[in-house]
Amino acid sequence: MPRRPALPRPPALQIPVPDPSHRELVERTRAGDPAAWDQLVDRFGSLVWSIAWREGMPAEDREDVFQHVFTELWMSLRRLRDPERLPMWIARATRRHCIKLARRRRRERGEPVDSFQEQLRDGGPGPEEELHSLQQRELLERGLHHLAREDRRGARLLRMLFLSDPRPAYRDIGEELGIPVGSIGPTRQRALEKLRTILEASA
Amino acid sequence: MSRRPGEHPTTDEWIGWLEGAGRSGDALDRHRQSCRACEGLLAVLSGFRAGGPGVAFGAPPEELRARARALAGSSPQAAPEREPLPPLQPATADDVRGALGDLGEMDDLPGDGRELLLGGEYPGAQVHLAARELPARGEVVLAGKLWLEEPGGGKIELLLLQEDHVLCREELQDGEFFLLRELAEPGWAVEFHLPGGECIRFDGAGPTP
């Protein structure tokens, strides 16, 4: 039986090189510049928040995780050997705090810890993969935010079509946006094209 | 599907291609390799698929961010709380299986994964270290002892690391038995920082006896 050709690897959005670099922000923070620390919190806050959300943490626990991760980062700044790997450091630290807190909650409720651990990890992406997909999603969010300034309806349509779960029916989308169902395809096409241009310019 | 020269595939065709209908070398794959616009569109569609539907990349509440920012304001000198790590001196791990008779406490630990017996004589100290990986739980268990060349020469710092990430930190006394159990993925490492500034490092991916 002939082998089926391999699935091609889809292209990914190009993550812009951060400016200032992670290394520069870490070094400035180490030198006592609080503005650099603010930038680190702003740069990675959404990553921490989103990972905790994806791990299924309730809102209150997400806040705990957030606080723990940034406290740990603050305490570890001098120890970082490769600040350019900071996104991975953040992703790993967040995941660990989520697992630890989830285990503690299970213990408090008298539930077995292992089963939840399996649930949390089995079949889930590894930290590298998770970080990559979240970075892609973050970039997309920024692009959609930008798009909404010039094409609010287009940005809303893309959110409804690609980010809503479950995806609404075309008829409901048409009603919501006030456009005929037959216009959804062309509106989507134009919005995607604008989004592509925005993201390419940002890269 | 036949296509006129210069005609691009439709968005629906690309979505279908991304959802698994695509094959390396097929017509769409060939097209995207030579069409920057379609490659860009595919990247956007891939971005939407990253993480699955319903996953929002949300911003944390401002109040929470403000609290994290305030860490810097609390004490400008707080960040340099610890000294920077010295340059790494990877240790060659000698098998010290025979010496591990001292570590009877390890017998009670769960052991569904790999076991490493590491240690030996190093500048400044002698180390006995046993590690068990518990893959089902994503944990590693470490136990052992460290004896300084100069007894009573100060505190020893033990770090369990994952790349740059300090997963766990313990302060030890000379000859004190330690037992740690921490979440750690493959690729962890252990470092002992001695009072004299030396660093002894063991990589979890090291040799298995």
Explain this structure.
The complex is a heterodimer of chains A (203) and B (209). Chain A has 203 residues and is mainly α. Chain A is built from 9 helices and no strands. Mean pLDDT of chain A is 85; it is low at 115-123. In chain B, a hairpin with a 4-residue loop joins strand 2 and strand 3. In chain B, helix 1 packs across helix 3 and helix 2 crosses helix 3 (36-49). The longest helix of chain B is centred in the N-terminal third of the chain and has 14 residues, at 36-49. Chain B is elongated, with a radius of gyration of 26 Å. At the A-B interface, helix 2, helix 3, helix 4, helix 5 and helix 6 of A face helix 1, helix 3, helix 4 and strand 5 of B.
Tell me how many strands of chain A there are. 0
Low-confidence stretches of chain B: 76-109
What's the overall geometry of chain B? elongated
Measured as a percent range, the helix fraction of chain A is over 70%
Number of strands of chain B: 8
Report, as a whole number of angstroms, the end-to-end distance of chain A.
44 Å
- Output the structural class of chain B: alpha+beta
**Approximately how much beta-strand content do the residues of chain B carry?**
25-35%
Output the number of helix runs of chain A: 9
The helix content of chain B is 10-25%
Give the averaged pLDDT of chain A, no decimals. 85
* Order of H and E elements of chain A: HHHHHHHHH
Q: What's the SSE blueprint?
A:
The complex is a heterodimer of chains A (203) and B (209).
Chain A: H1 22-30, H2 34-54, H3 59-76, H4 86-108, H5 113-121, H6 127-150, H7 152-163, H8 170-177, H9 181-202
Helix pairs in contact in A: 1-2, 2-3, 2-4, 2-6, 3-4, 4-5, 4-6, 6-7, 6-9, 7-9
Chain B: H1 11-21, H2 27-34, H3 36-49, H4 62-74, E1 115-122, E2 125-134, E3 139-148, E4 156-162, E5 165-172, E6 178-183, E7 188-193, E8 199-203
Antiparallel strand pairs in B: 1-2, 2-3, 3-6, 4-5, 4-7, 7-8
Helix pairs in contact in B: 1-3, 2-3
